[in-house]
Amino acid sequence: MNFFNFSINKILTREQSILDQARIRLLYYGFLLAIVGLGALFLSVYLQNLHVLTLTAGAILVAIAALFKYLTYKPHWRTISHLLLITGTLLNLAIVFVIVQDINIVTIQAIILIIIFSFYMLGQNWGMFFSLLNLLPILIFMVMQYDHNYFIDFKPEKADQSTTIIAVFANFILIIFIHSHLYAAFIKNIKQLRDTGEEQTTLNIKFETAIKKAEKSSQVQSEFLSTMSHEIRTPLNAVIGMSNLLLMNNPRPDQSENLEILKFSANNLLAIVNDVLDFNKIESGKVVFEKIKFNLAELLHNICGGQMIKAEEKGLLFKLDIDSALRRKIIFGDPTRLTQMIFNLVSNAIKFTSEGNIWVRATCLEDRHNTITVGFSVKDSGIGIRKENLETIFEPFTQESITTTRQYGGTGLGLAIVKRLLDLQGLQMHVSSKVNVGSEFSFNIEFPVSTEIVAPPKELVTETCQHQLQHTGAELELTESNLRILIAEDNPVNVMLMKKLLSKWHIVPTIAENGARAVEILQYGNFDIVLMDLQMPVMNGFDASMEIRKMTDPAKSRIPIIALTASALFDIRDQVTTAGMNDYVAKPFKPDELMDKIQNLITTVG
Ligand code: ADP
């Protein structure tokens, strides 16, 4: 690099802020001005034969030139300012205390220069420091001079008026220059800030509109999905219901096989619709986690009951291990969401395992009296997952490979739902898996514990769960045949389905085509139970139930009501209870499940 290249452009860069650039410029041009001024002073004192002053002016000139060179070499304006202020302070004090031994207008100017320069260049703290460093000794000097007790062994040099004029002139120019230069920079800075502020505001407005648009479109999308799924669920309900009915009619073996396939496919389609609907709901942030009381052991039994049958059908050994510490505890949490998570994991475990075992465990990891941490784990001896796919399988609509889709079906939403549900609660999923050996999915949840405890469960919680008791049609036929059931349902296909289904148990239900009609019929007739569809014209199921609960005759106002709902996903329970209904069955319901619930309510409520 050329030693004599003193250009300012090489030290100004785009990265420096407006103020820093102004500081560098100020030093640069300030040095040039100072060199001119000092040159003139040097000449003036030299011509007057003032040796010490000449020497001092010369030394300062050299120092300024050196700092100028330093600045044009590297723009370390902070260091240079410090060096300059130290030099200036020493010079100032030397002139007052030694060389001139007096205070004149130049001294005052020098102090003002130092004050302005230090504040502008180095900020408030250093500004205060250098200001006091210059002011205090001068004040002390003034007091001592006033008392006539300042004396040193050096004869002061007195410069003539011309030197003073040059110094005063040069100092004024410097003061004005520093001030005007930095003032301009401040104004420019403020303007730039205002401009960025305005830009920011326009950007913010743009962002807001974009966000609103996105929200709107996602809302439209989720409403669309919701409506579509609902529309799909209704005919599916009929398909599944009809296959159930046909299967109950002692079909020929070949028909029975076809019907099973029909039922299986319809159920599959329904699971997909449910998954899509639910994932959509989770994604749109509409999930609220409940905090209700439940017993974990009982819940796990209920979840695993059906799954166990599936596992056994495949010849798999199903083990359900529940920590004895958990069995009698009542905890607070969201059983529906927990069910959904475990159900998905267990379904996968069964789906992807052809031999060996499925092992579901709930371990009490920590019991802190009023909260417990439970470790859940679902382990299988199935096909396993390749290491590189361990993360992607949690993405929505992602399966391990095309072969998975072909061989096992599915949407690739199950794990995405589980992961999102855990994420929403700030929890993590752990997976370990080995191809052809098996997989284990596990997560921990902390639950608040109620002070209540459950009575020892009726069904023993055994290490390996056995089949749960299933009601058979014959069993119900004896007890339920004279039941008086009122069905509020507007869809004729569903009505036919229900009638046929109930006829298996020799029950002839009364039908109301909407909620208002149901309330009316109930007023004049006697019934044991009401099956209430939720979406109906004229009056929906919620309003009708509320009307029923308001009836004066307690036999009517307390009648058991079961909601029949097609959109029964996971938040319906609250709404159903709030409206005063006792229970709900999701359409398409399994005949046994419906009869179970009816029987249950008749014995407990009725
Ligand atoms: P789906 O089950 O509908 O395919 P999931 O999101 O539940 O969707 O699972 C995504 C993928 O993760 C599955 O397609 C499968 O490749 C893999 N997977 C999930 N659970 C298991 C398991 N227990 N064993 C082997 N692979 C699994």
UniProtKB/TrEMBL annotation:
Domain Histidine kinase: 227-449
Keyword ATP-binding: yes
Gene3D superfamilies recorded: 1.10.287.130, 3.40.50.2300, Histidine kinase-like ATPase, C-terminal domain
Catalytic activity, EC: 2.7.13.3
Annotated TM spans: 26-46, 52-71, 83-100, 106-122, 129-146, 166-186
Pfam family, one: Response_reg
Positions bearing 4-aspartylphosphate: 533
Residue ranges constituting the Response regulatory domain according to the UniProt record: 484-602
Gene Ontology MF terms in the entry: ATP binding
Keyword annotations of the record: ATP-binding, Membrane, Nucleotide-binding, Phosphoprotein, Transmembrane, Transmembrane helix, Two-component regulatory system
Catalytic activity: ATP + protein L-histidine = ADP + protein N-phospho-L-histidine
Official protein name in the record: histidine kinase
Organism: Mucilaginibacter aquariorum
